[in-house]
Amino acid sequence: MQLTDMTWTEVANLSRDTPVVIPVAALEQHGHHMPVFTDSMLLGEVVRRVSEPLKDSVLFAPLMWLGNSDHHLDFPGTLSANPRGYLDLLNDLTENFLTHGFKRIVFLNGHGGNSTPGKQAVFEVRQKHRARKDLLLLFATYWDSAKPWETRDDLVQKQMGHACEWETSMILRIAPHLVKGDVSKLETVDFGFAFEPAYRGWITKDRTVPGHIGSPQFATAEKGEHLLQTFSVGVKAFLESVIAWDGVSWDC
Predict the structure, then answer these.
(1) Strands 136-141 and 104-109
(2) Distance (Å, rounded) from C-alpha 222 to C-alpha 172?
(3) What mean pLDDT value characterizes the chain?
């Protein structure tokens, strides 16, 4: 079910055990070869593929395209909500649906920079409503739902990068006209974080000059379909576990 297509009375008549999915993504630079709307386009495609089979059992909010992208602001075209503002935005969206009586709220994420504030948001809301035992507040990133390299051995990467083999392949599948230049001539930008196992604060230009991270030169549309299909199956299974939750247990 798409929230944007419904009247308020139709929403009011839904079971309050209906999971609410809020897709969150970004509008930010994706290197020399990818559109700034990449994250939102890819999450939108995953949601499209998942929402059809789940249309009678899950309520999908419209995709939130503004994300926490401050680390990309050195690259023109990036639009961002600052981390604390973004956290408050997610808190408010959660509180809106709680006000309407819904109890199972899932942020489905398509941008790595949203992860830290997103997890903090569901943590904060849970503390605020600590007396309740019927809430399921989740933040999940679509590419964590599956391991696509296990079923296709020509994938060079085994993790999501940025404007990388995975993202470039998926855009080649759904909007090839938006991939600019000869991708095969691009070079790998390593994933590595310095000072592991510590987490180092960073901005994107610390790690990459062209704007991509990973190996976009190995991208193909065929890989893109495999990735989209695999992630969509994984997200669907995850949402089915949310539907099946008994309303009280810690585990699914």
Answers:
(1) parallel
(2) 9
(3) 97
Q: Model pTM? A: 0.96
Q: Annotate the chain with DSSP letters as a single string.
A: -BGGGS-HHHHHTS-TTS-EEEEE--B--BTTTB-TTHHHHHHHHHHHHHHTTTTTT-EEPPPB-----GGGTTSTT-B---HHHHHHHHHHHHHHHHHTT--EEEEEE--GGGHHHHHHHHHHHHHHTTT-SS-EEEEEEGGGG--GGGS-TT---SS--BSSHHHHHHHHHH-GGGS-S-GGG---B--PPTTTTSPPP--HHHH-SSS-BB-GGG--HHHHHHHHHHHHHHHHHHHHHHHH--SS-S--
Domain, as residue range, for 55: 3-151+227-244
Residue 156's identity, in one-letter code, is: V
In a 13 Å sphere around the CA of 220, the CA atoms on its Cβ side amount to 8
186-210: pLDDT as tens digits: 999 999 888 989 999 999 999 999 9
Are 67 and 97 spatial neighbours (Cβ–Cβ below 8 Å)?
A: no
Q: What is the CATH number of the domain that holds 50?
A: 3.40.50.10310
User: Are 97 and 14 within 8 A, CB to CB?
Assistant: no
CA distance 148 to 246: 30
Q: Check whether 71 has a pLDDT greater than 90.
A: yes
Total count of domains within the chain: 1
Domain-embedded: residue 124 = yes
CB 28 within 8 A of CB 77: yes
Position 146: which residue type? A
